[in-house]
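request received
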Amino acid sequence: GAGVSQSPSNKVTEKGKDVELRCDPISGHTALYWYRQSLGQGLEFLIYFQGNSAPDKSGLPSDRFSAERTGGSVSTLTIQRTQQEDSAVYLCASSLRSSGSLTDTQYFGPGTRLTVL
Amino acid sequence: KQEVTQIPAALSVPEGENLVLNCSFTDSAIYNLQWFRQDPGKGLTSLLLIQSSQREQTSGRLNASLDKSSGRSTLYIAASQPGDSATYLCAVPYSGGGADGLTFGKGTHLIIQP
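response:
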């Protein structure tokens, strides 16, 4: 079956512009996660959705970052007024969590490489 | 705050050798630990997930162990092959006892020489 997909695969934008990154999780997966991978910084957790709600937004680096999920499926990560330090690969993952299990494997998409000029 | 450390940061060995990658974490109240591999320009592939009640998991030539009390995990790769070249990452739940996002180590960059 299809894995986690993300679009676009690459995005180049100018400082100050807004960008939207999209994630399509594996069908039936109720949990969805966003991460950021910056050069030299490693992978950083941003936000987690269970269904359409986001119980944990603690990883969002600033109020310029927001995310939503509709219909319990597709999620969009929006970065407003982008800054050069936002340049990174943004990864999305999903997991089953159908029974509230806390131990499900997370499956990752290929990521969106964001470059802010 | 959970912190994950991986040693070594990089490793280069000849094909055929057995090798061990190390991971340590500061908060032992975890539900699970996962090992991933990441190939250049690609996303992460899950290799093994060890439940907190388990001590090890095996998949093919890979064996991962978990010692919660000491905050350590190891990934053992037997009979290494050039195709094993990748960055290996370990990860534990972000908030220690919770299982929402994951906290990752910075990875071990592995090169297997043909």
